[in-house]
Amino acid sequence: MIAMWKPYCWKFSILCLSIVALVASAKNDGNPANEVVDCINKNRTTNKLPKLYNSPGLGCMALQYISECMGNCSTNNTLSCQPPEVDITEVYAPNCGVELPTVGTISGHLVGCQWKHLNPEQAFSKVLISDKKRLSLLHSKDHTEVGVGFSRAHHGPFFWCILFSSGKTNSTFVLEGGRGIKQRNGCFSGKDLPCSSGRKLPFPSDLKPVVFSMLLHLIVGI
Ligand SMILES: *[C@@H]1O[C@H](CO)[C@@H](O)[C@H](O)[C@H]1NC(C)=O
Ligand SMILES: *[C@@H]1O[C@H](CO)[C@@H](O)[C@H](O)[C@H]1NC(C)=O
Ligand SMILES: *[C@@H]1O[C@H](CO)[C@@H](O)[C@H](O)[C@H]1NC(C)=O
Ligand SMILES: *[C@@H]1O[C@H](CO)[C@@H](O)[C@H](O)[C@H]1NC(C)=O
């Protein structure tokens, strides 16, 4: 009786473990750009400021902004990157599929880079809101909406960008057809899309198929 029961017990434990691993990896699969928006809004609300609307159009433009900064992260994690302002309408909006007449005023931006991988909370406090000047920009009463982009240079540093806007939240940065143009690398806030570009972002989601096939094997095996 016991001898028969034992292998099942063992298999059952592995089954449980794999389910836990699968759930955990699914959780890590989230969008780090959206997590930064959560940090932004948490910090604003604890300081009695209104939450900012998480705009996908603006988020995509923040990701586009980063693409111009890829070569400019120094070894000491300082980023010198000043793309021309006209790029907002001439490059970012068309590349994202943001309807041009709906491009609103950018009321502030914050960018940063880091050679080491940081989680969104660390990126928020250590890279993006790293001093008082940046904190006061975060707390500006002008902002009504926000967009965050996150990407990594090939085998290189990680880049973060926050764009703030003072535009009307439901009529600015409108994406063509509601979806805009799909971005190939990195991720942006406002949508529930995970980070694209398998090769660039080292996320545990890579493990998911492995765990899943293990699970399947076990279920079929039992
Ligand atoms: C970081 O590096 C840049 C360029 O390499 C340099 O100009 C800057 O002074 C450095 N900053 C610090 C804090 O070391
Ligand atoms: C990146 O750095 C180079 C060299 O310092 C500079 O010429 C260029 O304008 C920078 N790029 C941006 C987008 O600021
Ligand atoms: C959030 O806001 C407080 C001010 O209430 C500030 O001191 C703190 O540094 C902010 N948090 C982060 C992670 O920047
Ligand atoms: C935008 O929001 C306002 C107030 O929430 C609403 O009255 C208006 O109809 C909305 N416009 C669109 C295009 O959704």
Automatic annotation (TrEMBL):
Annotated signal sequence range: 1-25
Instruction: Identify the Gene3D superfamilies for this entry.
Output: CAP
Matching entries from Pfam families are given as: CAP
Keyword check for Transmembrane helix = no
Keyword Signal applies: yes
Q: Could you tell me the keywords of this UniProt record?
A: Signal
| Record field: transmembrane | none
Q: What InterPro entries does the record point to? A: CAP_dom, CAP_sf
Chain coiled-coil ranges: none
Domain SCP, by residue range, is 38-162
SUPFAM superfamilies, A to Z: PR-1-like (SSF55797)
Q: Please identify the protein, giving its name as recorded.
A: Uncharacterized protein LOC103696192
Give the species this sequence originates from.
Phoenix dactylifera (Date palm)
